[in-house]
Amino acid sequence: MPKKNFSKPHSPAFTLVELLVVISIIILIVAISIPALSGLMRGKRLEGAGKIVQEVLRSARQLAVTKNVEHRVIFFSQKNTAGRLVYGIKIYRNATIDDKPKGKPGVDKGGYLSKEWWLPEGLTIKLYFVDPNGWEPGPLPDAKTIQLNTDGNGNGRSGKLEFQKRGNFIFGGNYRDIPPTFDIERVLQDGASIPQANAQADIIITQPQSPKRCFIDLIPELGKTYMRILRISN
Length: 234
Prior knowledge:
Elements: H1 16-67, E1 71-79, E2 85-93, E3 111-112, E4 117-118, E5 124-131, E6 134-138, H2 143-148, E7 160-163, E8 169-171, E9 193-195, E10 203-206, E11 212-219, E12 224-233
Parallel strand pairs: 9-12
Antiparallel strand pairs: 1-2, 1-7, 2-3, 2-4, 5-6, 5-10, 7-8, 10-11, 11-12
């Protein structure tokens, strides 16, 4: 009686040509996806930085209203340990006649809050100042200047916003509300294009080698902000 062969049938295997085709397709997909993912990540960095600015403004407004004391938001720059310029934001509580001499600065008496907010490295924040020659983005004071002036008052370009007790705010130094004629980005959706000539706002955050910018418009009488991530077009 002949013996039966109980061995399992061989599974079909990929040939070398088929493997090369699959690898080539994967490489092509990755190559196509990288620029799109890179652009998406850059947009997310800008959006994250804009949300940091909005968080600080909301915090200062809430403190001014709940504590019944004016609070200032001050933008500044500083070099990190690697020697690169980074941008930070502080909140300063104004002094009042009811301050406790031995109280905690920023809490019981005038001074900076202990918390600081920082934008991701590589991003640049610009505020628009009014000068004799017109509106232009100006440099922010460095951290040493902020400390020497205590509350940022000593520099016309201190980039200061002061929230009032009822929730509105006023601009300080040479920092002014951008004219309403530049507020067209409010009606645009995130990701839309905006002409270079109209690419202005109270606060603009940029990053290298990216056509996208974060535009933040301030509404002083309401103490509110608008934020858009837009692409600059020629």
